[in-house]
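The instructor's notes for this session suggest beginning with a concrete chain rather than abstract definitions. Hand out the sequence below and ask the class to guess, before any prediction is shown, which regions might be ordered.
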Amino acid sequence: MKITKFKKVFSMTGELGLRNYTVRDIIDLKGEKQLTQTLPFFPNEAKAAEDAGIDLMNIRFNYFKQETAIEIRKSASKTFMSFVIPLLSVPTKDDALKHSYKAMELGADGIIFQGSLNHIEALSNAGIPVQGHIGLVPRKSTWTGGIRAVGNTIDEAKALFQNLKDLENAGAWAVECEVIPSRLMRELSSRTSLVTISIGSGNGGDVQFLFAEDILGASEGPFPRHSKQYCNLFKEAQRIQKIRVKAFKDFIDEVNTNIFPSNKFEVEVTEGFPMPEDANNKITSIATYDSASDTYYAFVLDEKNRLTLESKDNIIIKSFDTEYELLQAFMVEYLKWKPTIITGWNIDTFDMPYLYNRICKVAGSNVADMLSPIQTVQWNKHRKRFMFAGVSCLDYLPLYKLFTYTQLSSLSLIHISEPTRLLSIADAVVCL
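After discussion, reveal the predicted structure:
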């Protein structure tokens, strides 16, 4: 059941927060309710686990590389979370205290430690909730004869019970019980005050623990026999990778066949060549070409209804009585096109800045900002151009300057059209 009401808590650093459970809550629930626990490796896994209602989480903590732990803690801020201190990083009690205090400072609700009882006692005496580990402790598996179930003999069962008592006496509040026979797990859990956390030990513990990697099927495997995969993210990741490869191949193919870039713009205004930053003159026409549909569009201002314009084949012509109607109609089509690349002649210094500033004046900045798919338009003072987030503007004028060696008196279209008419660049220019 997902928690909807959270408790206020103070961290050891005095920071106020909200949690689904406290140590006291979990202890009080012993024998009454079995909780769920997982260990996410990434923030998005932790966020998903919290959204799903997972009760408890463990996360790995590296004192010398804390960023991942910080991000995971932030992504699941309301879930009781224990930080796992690596065994070999804390050879002394002072090291254990130093690393544990840092973990608590970063938002840990408790510490998980596989080291000695002396270390656990030191943490407990310092007021830090600490959890131990019995059964199959992978990093100590040489003492149990390798990766196997622990507790199949009377002697092993007695040793596990003594492990519990030693942890109790050292001040631990919980213990992870890994790959212990389920019948023995139930007996051990009923004979200790510790909150028992079962992983591969049946349903006799107070908490059922499974790694997020196992739950999500996030690796190629093989998976532990006691685990279960509730989805196959590894297979899905492979499928997505194939999609990525195909997308890159399609991009290369369209570049090589001149299909991409797609949209091309030309903006015409009245009374000469006005300043784009002022945008004082009416826009009388906007001409575009959409390569995705192989269609030409012309939006024309015809205030006195003098023009007779007809659409045909792949050419669509629309006339309007007012500039406002023209710009509104253009924006409606623009939002349908959803261009990622816009090309044209001198569009960086004239067409796009004039279009943006004029739309701001006539229809408002909220409409003009829609030239960006995320509605973010900013002036780049270094490049001296507008940046439309999510859209790249490819200006043929600077490209022409860069790659042509022809000396012309002017770089207006009328001067370059003849020498370039046989070049592909000429096909990119749509004039009205």
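Then share the key points. Residues 233-256 form the longest helix (24 residues). The radius of gyration is 34 Å.
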